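Example complex used in Figure S2.
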Amino acid sequence: VAQNRPAVGLLYNPATPDVIEHAPELVQYLAVMPDRLWFDFGAQAVAGRRFHRTLGAMEEVRRRARGRMLAGHGLGLSLPSAMPLDETFVEAVATMSADLGGFLWYSEHLSLFITPKGSVPNAQAGLGLPVVYDEEAFEIISTKLARRRQRLGCRLLLENGSFFTPVPDMDMSEPTFLNNLYAGGHCGTLLDLHNLYVSWRNGGTRPEAYLEELDPDAVEEIHLAGGDDFAGFYMDSHSGLTPPEVWRFAFDYAPRFRRLRAITFEFQETYYDRLRPDGVVAELIRMHELAARCNVTREVTDAG
Amino acid sequence: MLVEFQQAVADLTASPEFCISVRRDPAILRQRYELTEREWRRLVGIVQHPGMACACTVYRANRLAPLAMNLPLTCRALGKELRAVVSEYWATFPEGNVHFFIETDRFCRFLEAKLAEGVRFPAKVAPVLAQEAALIADALRESETEAMPYEVGDYRDLADVLAGPGLDDGAVKVPFPG
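Predicted assembly (482 residues):
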């Protein structure tokens, strides 16, 4: 990977090895989700036996990650929840990182997935619940990030979510909240441009306004993806190729992100037949064109 | 309190009926949760937002995902009964399990209990449930080892299941864990 360009890669899924077979040189980076490499038997499981890893899948990840950058991408921790951090989960992620050779960085979602009386069922259709952006949430999230960073020992990123129901009357906008986390040294931003598009299509903020407000130096990774329409709404289903509008945001704004480390395409393997290897490879080629327009001039400190 | 506010958002998303009740009478929220005035106003704004219907739909689709993926024949056999059965199941077990085989195994037991009670389902349900429940029990046992194979493309016909007797008016795209 050229040092002044972000790496281009994929969010790992069971179809990823096939994409790599088709275009090994185009995939420089893999993001893996620990949640998909284990079975979580929950807090009621016998002590120490909560997470059962899928060793075959982990070995495949290890093999495919050789010679590539590797980072972790988490779904299940729900940092904004007004509850204590799930320390067992944190430990399991740290163990998995070590097992896979060490994540260069680790990203989580700035969305609510867990409440005291249960969890929000979250498949890839994307139903993180909205977060209230105020000082209380900032304190909760920044405290948990500090603990995570201490245990994982790598840079942390938070990803903007996509929401169907924005919270009215907030103290801060989402970009301001992310800017403050970055300014405070708590984490960087994983900017999911498709999530911005989803929220906008469903009545949320105009992506350009959001992107103008976001501190460009906070952005260290970009997610691209495609979705589809359902019942009058646009879904973050990761079922398609990146929409033209999202590409436009990417080409307009990514060159401003001086600390951008990776550009990542997300798709659901259940749609791989429809996307076809050629479709994903074409996305990767365009992502490399985007990476070539970027000029990474500011170093990221891995220790966070 | 933030924790109460978050629980209320989750409860509303899980229940279109609760949303309808709150839209009719927002004071219900104050009876059920300890909320500041501002939190209450925010919740009323959320529940009245047009996107709330979509959030509820996606919630149900995501809870249906493990059942439709792992029990496609049973879901098909239930046909029009599927909507009522899963609604009752979710009311009985409001908290889903992130481990898809545990969640599916629990649903199998729920259906088996219904059959044992004499609840009448379409004739095909009992034999396909027995067949799929056995597979799930095996998969659950296997997942307790650390050598579960990582299969590709096991669950590709979920969209058909959802589009058929499913919970919504149209096909929901395949949700997947992670």
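The two ends of chain A are 21 Å apart (CA to CA). DSSP finds nine helices and 14 strands in chain A.
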